[in-house]
Amino acid sequence: MKNPVLEIKNLSTSFNIKGDYYAAVDDVSITVHENEVVAIVGESGCGKSALALSVMGLHNLKNTKLEGQVNFGGQNLLSLSRNALNKVRGKDIGMIFQDPMTALNPLATIGRQIEEPMDYHMKLSASDKKKRVLELLRRVGIKNEQRVYEQYPHELSGGMRQRVVIAIALSCDPVLLLADEPTTALDVTIQAQIMDLMKELQNQMKTGIILITHDLGVVAEMADRVVVMYAGQVVEIADVKELFANPLHPYTRSLLNSIPANMEGKEKLHVIDGIVPSLQNLDRTGCRFAPRIEWIPAEDHEERPEMHEAEPNHFVRCSCYKTFYFPEDRVGEREYVATESE
Amino acid sequence: MLKFILRRTLLMIPQLILLSIIIFMLAKMMPGDALTGAFQGNPDVSLEQLEKLREKAGLNDPWYQQYGRWLGNAVQGDFGKSYVHQQKVTSLLAGKVENTVILSLFTLIVTYLIALPLGIIAGRFTDSWADKAIVTYNYFAFATPLFVFALLMMWFFAFVLGWLPYGSSVDIKLESGTWDYFVSRAKHLVLPVLSGSLLATFSTIQYLRNDIIDQKLRDYVKTARAKGVPEAKVYTRHILRNSLLPIAAFLGFEITGLIGGSVFIESIFSYPGLGYLFIQSISTRDFTVVTALVMISGTAVIVGTMLSDIILSIVDPRIRIE
Amino acid sequence: MSLLKVNDLKVHYPIRGGFFRKVVDHVRAVDGISFELQPGETYGLVGESGCGKTTSGRAIIGLNDVTAGQMMFEGKDLAQMGRIERRKYTKDIQMIFQDPYSSLNGRKNILNTIAEPLRNFERLSAKEELVRVQELVERVGLTPESIYKYPHQFSGGQRQRIGIARALALKPKLIIADEPVSALDVSVQAQVLNFMQEIQEDFDLTYLFISHDLGIIQHMCDRIGIMYRGRFVEEGTADEIYKNAQHVYTKRLIAAIPEMNPEKRFEKMHLRQAINQEYQTEYNNYFDNDGRMYDLKKLSDTHSVAMQ
C-alpha cells in the first residue's frame, strides 16, 4: 500500500444553530494515499462540502466546532494556529472551487492571482514567478498564455476560468488537491474537458486528490476510491470498480437507480421517498437512512450502526444492506448493473 | 476612453440647456420679479415708474426672448446684475465660490478620513465592541438633524469654551496674505467642517461596513484563504479593493451633494459662501442671483455624475471602456 | 396536424456601438430554427449555455420578441398575433421554470400562487376555485392543507411540483419545461421526472423539454433537436441521436456524458480525443467559411443533420 497523505480521523464538524451545536460531519474517518483520487459523493446536506472546508480550515470558528484529527505532513491541521495553517494551505494543499465565475477576484489580473500563493510559499524573483505562471497556464491547457496572463477574469469563459482556478491550486506543487464540485457549474463538454485535464495532471503530478461531488458519473470517470456520505456519516467506502459493480448500501443503490443515464428509454426512475432531514431534525440514533426505506423491517437495522467490511476493502454501514430490496410495486425500478451502460 | 469622455461631455449640452430652460421658466413663474423685490412698498417709486423700469429692463418681452438674452450672456459668463446688491452677479459670486469650494473640499476630506477607517474596522470586526460603538455613532449621525448638531457644536466650542470663532470666514481686521490671516481662515473653517463631516460619514460607514461583510463571504475570499494568504492581506489585497471601488465611484456624487449641503452649514455659521448667498437671495427675490446659483449647482450635479462614471470605468476593469 | 410548428424562427438582439450608439451588428441568439411538435410527444431541445434553447422557449411563450419566422400553434401563427389575441393562447401554452426557489413569489401562499392563472382566465366562485386548487395540489402529491403554506415551507422538489401545478391549472396543451430539474438533487430529480411522465398521460400534454443534460433528455424525450450557436445541428429520434449521431458537435456532446462504468473510463477519454481530432480535421464539413452551421439536410424521415 502507498503512503497515506491525509488521514481524517473521527472528524466531526458542528454548526451553532440558535445556541446548540449540530454535527454536519459526524465522526468521519477517511484516508487519502499518494497518487490516489478519493471521491466523496452524496446529495446536498450530506456534509461533503463541510468536510472539505474543515480540512482547509475555512469555517468561521465563531459558530463552528471541530473535533477529531486531520493529520497531514506529520501535524494535526485542526490544532494549528492560523499562521501555521497558512504555511500549509496553498502550498502543500491546493483547493479547487465549484464556481469559477465567483472563485476569482474580479479586480485582479489572472497572472497576479496565480502568482499570489508563490509570494507566500516560494522564494522566487519576479521574472521566475512569471515564467512559472506561464508554464502553469500552458499545463492547464491554455494556449495563448501570454495574453491570458494580463487578462481579467470577466474576459474569460467559464471553462478557461476553471483552468485558471486549477492553475492556482497547482501553483506551489501541492501533494494534495481538494476539489469541491470542480465541474458542477460547467457545461457538459467543458466538464468533460476539465475531467480529462484533471486525470492527465494527476497522472503527471501524482498528487492525492479529494474529489467532492454529487455526480456519480464524475465519480465513475475520475475516482480510485469512493466514499458515500449520507446525513453527515460515511455509509459506504469501496474501490470505484467494486462500488459500481457491487453497490451494497441501500442509499448507494437507490442513488444509482435514480439516475436517468442508467435507464434505457422511458422506464420509471427509482424515487427515494422523503427528504434529507435538516440538521436540527435529524434522528441521530439508529440507521439514518431507515426512514426512507420504510419497507425494510426495523430489526434488519442495527441499533448503533457500525461500518462492516462486507467484502475485502469494501465497507458499509448498518446491517440493513444484507436484506435490502426494491419493492415490487415500485418497480420499473430494476436494479442497476454497471455493465449494462454503454 | 477619450471617445467616451467626449460623448459624455457632448451629451451634457442638451442636459444643460434643458436644465437652464426649466430654471428660467420656474424663476419667471414665481410671483413678482427683481423689481418687485427691490422697490415694492417703496413710497418714492410709483407703479408707472416701475412699469417703465420693467419695459426698459426687457422684463415685458416674451419669455423666449428673455431666455435667449439670458442664455447668450450666461454663456459668456454674464449672469446679469443683482438688483439687490447692485453689482454684477459674477463679481458677487467670485469670492463666494472659492469659500464654498474650500469648505466642501475640506468637509469631504475629513468625512473620508473619519468614515473609511471606521467603516473598515466595523466591517472586519463585526459584532466586536468596536463595531457596536461605530454602529451606535452611525445611528446617531443619521438621526441628528444637521442644524441642531451644528448649533450645539457652535454653542459648546465657540460660546462655552471660546476656542473657536462662530461666524464668517475670516477675521475682517486682518490683511489678506499674512500668516495671521491664514490661521484665522483655518480656525473659521474648523467648526463648519467638523459639523458637516461628522454627520456626513453616515452613508460611507454604513455602505463600507455592509459591503465588507458581504465581500467576506464571497468565494474569491475563500480562494485567497485557501492560497494561504495571511488574514491581514486577505483584507488589504482582496476585500478592501472590491469594497472601496463603489465608494471611489461615488466621489463624483459626493462632491455635488456637499455643495447642496453647504446651504445649511453656511447659513448657520454665517459663512460667506454660495449657500448663504442662496438663502439671502431667495428671501429678497434676487432672481438673477438665484438662477445663476441653481444653474451652477445643476451643472455640478451633471458634471459630478459624469465624473463618477469616468472614475468607475477607470478603477473597475469590468467596465473599462476601450 | 402538428400542435406547434416552428418555422425559421429568429430572435436577434442589436449590438450598439460607435459614437452615436448605432446598431452595428446583431447577436443571433436564435438564427433560423424549424421544428414540429406532434400532440402527446416530448420534444427535447438540447445544447450548452448560450446556444439559444432557452430563448427559443421564451419566444414561443411570448417572453421574447421574435425577429422573424412563424410559430404555428394549431394552425395559427403566434408571431403575427396582437397582444389580445395572443392572450387566448397563453391558456394553452404554459411554462415550468428552472429554479423552483425564485419562480414562486415568496409572499403568496400556495392557494394564491396556483389560483392566479385561474383568476386571470376563468371566472370561478371562491368555492369552485378552492376545489380546483385542492384537486391540483393533491394531483401533484401534496396534502390539501398545504395550500395555506408559503413556498419557503417546502423542499425544492415540492416547490417544483407546485410550479407544475400552477402550469396545469388552466389545462394547457403544451408545456415548455426549461431545465425543470437542473437545480435539484439526483433523487429529487427522479421524483419530478417520473411525475412529469405521469401527468403527461393523465392530462394529454405535449412537452417541449429544454435541457443541457443529455442523460435526462434521453430518458424523457421521443425526438430531439440539438442546438449550437442559435441553430440546429441535428434532429432525430432519441435512438437516432444517441446511437447514430452524424454531426461532430452531437458526437462531442454525447461523448461528454460521464461514463458510468469505471472500467471504460479511458476508452471514453480516447473517444473524446478522437472526436476533438475529427472536429479539427473535418471542420469544413460541418461549418461554412463564416463558422456558421449549414442548413439541415434530411437523412431519413425523422433524421436530419447540418452538413455540407
From TrEMBL, chain A:
UniProt main location, coarse: membrane
Cellular location(s): Cell membrane
Keyword Membrane belongs to the record: yes
Family of this protein: Belongs to the ABC transporter superfamily.
InterPro entries hit by this protein: AAA+_ATPase, ABC_Ni/Peptide_Import, ABC_transporter-like_ATP-bd, ABC_transporter-like_CS, Oligopep_ABC_C, P-loop_NTPase
GO molecular function: ATP binding
Annotated ABC transporter domain residues: 6-256
Pfam families reported in the protein's UniProt record: ABC_tran, oligo_HPY
Topology versus the membrane: Peripheral membrane protein
Official protein name in the record: ABC transporter ATP-binding protein
Lineage: Bacteria, Bacillati, Bacillota, Bacilli, Bacillales
Keyword set includes Ribosomal protein: no
CDD domains (alphabetical): ABC_NikE_OppD_transporters (cd03257)
UniProt source species: Sporosarcina quadrami
Keywords: ATP-binding, Cell membrane, Membrane, Nucleotide-binding, Transport
Highest taxon, organism lineage: Bacteria
UniProtKB/TrEMBL annotation, chain B:
Bilayer topology term: Multi-pass membrane protein
Keywords tagged on the record: Cell membrane, Membrane, Transmembrane, Transmembrane helix, Transport
ABC transmembrane type-1 domain: residues covered: 97-308
Pfam family, one: BPD_transp_1_N
Superkingdom of origin: Bacteria
Keyword S-adenosyl-L-methionine on entry: no
Localization in the cell: Cell membrane
PROSITE patterns on file: ABC_TM1
Transmembrane segments: 9-27, 101-125, 137-164, 189-208, 244-269, 289-315
Location (main, coarse): membrane
Family: Belongs to the binding-protein-dependent transport system permease family.
Name recorded for this polypeptide: ABC transporter permease
Protein's organism: Sporosarcina quadrami
Lineage of origin: Bacteria, Bacillati, Bacillota, Bacilli, Bacillales
UniProtKB/TrEMBL annotation, chain C:
The organism of origin for this protein: Sporosarcina quadrami
Pfam families (UniProt xref): ABC_tran (PF00005), oligo_HPY (PF08352)
CDD domains: ABC_NikE_OppD_transporters
Official protein name in the record: ABC transporter ATP-binding protein
Entry similarity comment: Belongs to the ABC transporter superfamily.
PROSITE patterns linked: ABC_TRANSPORTER_1, ABC_TRANSPORTER_2
Annotated PANTHER family: TRANSPORT ATP-BINDING PROTEIN
GO molecular function, one term: ATP binding
SMART domains assigned: AAA
Residues covered by the ABC transporter domain: 4-254
Keywords assigned by UniProt, alphabetized: ATP-binding, Nucleotide-binding, Transport
Taxonomic superkingdom: Bacteria
